[in-house]
Input
Amino acid sequence: MTARPRLADIDSLLAPAAPAPADIDFDLDAHHSTEVLLATHQVLVARCVIDFAGRGEPVESELVIPRRDCQGDRPRGIALWRAAQELLAQLLLRRPGVHPTIRIAIGSELVPLAAA
Output
């Protein structure tokens, strides 16, 4: 019988691929205006773009942000970053060997939030 990996073990495997918050040019404390796809009383869903290091066209996806991390329809930077890290972890588990970059539109600029 083989031991199942603990969640902490999986996190430690993915940690080197995720940039530290200080490594991105993005204000983690500010609330940001971004493209909102869905807003409920519990969550805000923001559009993001995933680029697979030049392998085909970028793919649109979503980041789910808890309402407690939003000011109106403006999510806090750290919440966007955390959601991007979760999405990145899922991508790396499903597609080992890919090198995705997750970007979100802030104003008219696509800002990178996470990369592997």
Notes: The chain has one domain: 30-112. The helical segments are 7-14, 77-94. The chain is about 20% helix and 35% strand. Confidence is low (pLDDT under 50) at residues 5-17.
